[in-house]
């Protein structure tokens, strides 16, 4: 359990703002360090074979201007690709999302760390007014990204894969998701969220990721 929670604590979280093609957006931002060089991290997030081992299987025309689709339904266009430093994609979920282009983007930035490691930054921008935020706040996407970056840490560390469904149902996974929801609530407060709405969002996020446990958020 301690190692899993140490991985959660390794990330810095914040909310910010951005401008997307569709207009004003909020951002959820994760920063952490991985004990691997940028070329290795870049390959892990762009190679279909390696991506499927820590995130989800991916298909598509995986080049600048091409499109991708993950096994869970997330899909989009590859908007920028500067190996091994920056990847930006549009990020849509479900076929109905295609009716609102330019409303969600994910950007990953990699830079060399001081010891041959990698400074990793992920920024997910979503248009203000998207339907999940009023209920879940930044935890709507933030807890999911925390889970994926935990899996990436394990994969880069020893090549291991994480069974996401089994982990999320385990005591360690439930505690990880619970604490992630709280951490995103803290980022929401620091970003100017109203305390009552933040508390409600943390409770809703916890109930979603840790069914039957929302009252403990």
From TrEMBL:
- Family annotation (Gene3D superfamilies): 3.30.530.20
* Family matches, as InterPro entries: ASHA1/2-like_C, START-like_dom_sf
Tell me where in this chain the Activator of Hsp90 ATPase homologue 1/2-like C-terminal domain is found: 35-152
Pfam families of this UniProt entry?
AHSA1
Q: Which family does it belong to?
A: Belongs to the AHA1 family.
- Name assigned to this protein: SRPBCC family protein
Species source reads Pseudonocardia spirodelae
């Amino acid at each position: 359990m301690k190692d899993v929670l140490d991985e959660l604590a390794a990330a810095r979280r914040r909310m910010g703002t951005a401008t997307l093609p569709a207009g004003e957006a909020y951002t959820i931002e994760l920063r952490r360090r991985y004990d691997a060089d940028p070329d290795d991290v870049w390959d892990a997030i762009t190679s279909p074979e390696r991506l499927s081992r820590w995130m989800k299987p991916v298909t598509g025309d995986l080049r600048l201007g091409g499109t991708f689709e993950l096994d869970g339904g997330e899909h989009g266009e590859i908007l920028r690709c500067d190996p091994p430093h920056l990847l930006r994609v549009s990020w849509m979920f479900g076929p109905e999302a295609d009716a609102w282009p330019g409303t969600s983007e994910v950007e990953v930035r990699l830079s060399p760390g001081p010891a041959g490691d990698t400074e990793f930054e992920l920024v997910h921008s979503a248009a203000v007014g998207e339907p999940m935020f009023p209920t879940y706040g930044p935890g709507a996407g933030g807890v999911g990204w925390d889970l994926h970056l935990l899996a990436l840490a394990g994969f880069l560390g020893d090549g291991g894969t994480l069974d996401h469904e089994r982990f999320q149902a385990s005591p360690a996974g439930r505690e990880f998701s619970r604490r992630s929801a709280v951490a995103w609530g803290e980022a929401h407060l620091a970003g100017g969220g109203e305390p009552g709405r933040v508390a409600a969002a943390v409770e809703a996020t916890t109930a979603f990721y840790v069914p039957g446990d929302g009252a403990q958020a």
